[in-house]
Amino acid sequence: VRRLSIALVHHPVLDAKNEVVTSTLTTMDVHDLSRSARTYGCERFYIVHPIPAQRALGARIIDHWTHGSSAKRIPDRKDALAIVTIVSTLEDAVNDMTRDGASEEDRARVWVTAARTIGPSMSWSDARAELSSDGPPLLLVFGTSWGLAPAVVEGADALLAPIHGTGEWNHLSVRAACAIALDRLAGC
Ligand code: SAM
Prior knowledge:
- By secondary structure, the protein is α/β, with parallel strands linked by helices.
- The protein has helices at about 25-40, 50-65, 70-75, 75-80, 90-95, 125-130, 150-155, 175-185; strands at about 5-10, 15, 20, 45-50, 85, 110, 140, 160.
- About 40% of the residues lie in helices and about 15% in strands.
- The longest helix is centred in the N-terminal third of the chain and has 15 residues, at about 50-65.
- The protein starts with a strand and ends with a helix.
């Protein structure tokens, strides 16, 4: 099985007017996605944020729950947050996943997700088959605000098909989407 990590991108993302913006780090995203990532055997959960103060906020949350009073109160959470890595750009996450000296074909592959059909997409069954085969590590990328900016989607190796429920209404939180995506890719 290939190495799998997830990333939560706060820039570049879209706002309601389809402009490229930077979103605010949300504490519950840090906790929720780290628990899902740990549950499904992800190596790391990369928080991508270009603003230093926001990265410092993320580091404080992690420090509080891995070394502070909450770490003593809820030790299990420490294990989940231990896989969180805070970086400035998605490229930093790809570089961090790609072993030193790895050749180009061993470079981590970027798979992006979106709530709407924004281009030719890979099915979840094909993605699951790819994950269980041999190959370079995979970075599954989630957006915030109104979704990943086109630059991220265009630069990715694959776009996964939107997760669909039963009807037209489809507005999953990133926390729900991440858990469903990981279960489709790596769940028993
Ligand atoms: N502010 C919102 C929140 O708190 O959840 C964030 C919305 S953001 C657009 C949700 C992200 O989760 C998307 O960028 C995408 O990565 C993922 N996502 C949401 N719905 C999805 C779906 N139906 N299929 C695949 N990914 C989805």
